[in-house]
Amino acid sequence: MKLVLATSNKGKVREIKALYKDFEVVPYSELIDEFEIVEDGKDFKENALIKARAVFKALDDEDVIVLADDSGISVDVLGGKPGIYSARYAGADATDKDNLYKLIEAIKTKGFDSSPAHYTAAIAIVTKDGEYSVHGWMYGEAMAKAVGDGGFGYDPMFIPLGYDKTLGELDDETKKSISHRAKALSLAKVILQTL
Ligand SMILES: O=c1nc[nH]c2c1ncn2[C@H]1C[C@H](O)[C@@H](COP(=O)(O)OP(=O)(O)OP(=O)(O)O)O1
Ligand SMILES: [Mg+2]
Question: Is 76 a catalytic residue?
Fold first, then answer.
């Protein structure tokens, strides 16, 4: 089955390809020019649907199945921030590193070395016949420091529950077995098998 990914994030593409070995996974940028999608939904699910719908419409191909991921990190001592704003935490053109160091500073400014935190991933699927969405979560501790360069985004500051190393230090296989994205994609697989 061919699955078009409505994402511009190379880290997500890498992880989705590794988890969906039995699908033909194609980032939409290999089919059409990348375009800006305004993620103005009120939650992860709405934003994932907005991205999947936008790419489905732009592809203009009835038979395509489009999958989008909207995700982010929520830090307890910051009242759940940055949440759905994770990608734009340090500004509209922020890089992963800008966002990472801004979050570290925010936790320090609150007077903490770390805080309970969790990642959320909403996966949306859009086809000509319907729309579907599922979620996955990963709980752990957001550290006020960055260690390791594995994964992407906020991974160098995140220690999953039950581990003593950050996702920047842990290998890809470990993240694959516990991540918010892996959990949501495994639920999404059940839906995809019915299409
Ligand atoms: O496993 C993860 N490990 C580390 N960081 C993560 C992860 N999952 C989401 N994140 C962070 C990255 C980004 O700051 C935000 C996602 O924002 P989000 O809008 O969904 O993705 P994006 O703009 O990078 O790509 P796109 O919208 O084209 O899919 O959360
Ligand atoms: Mg985005």
Answer: no
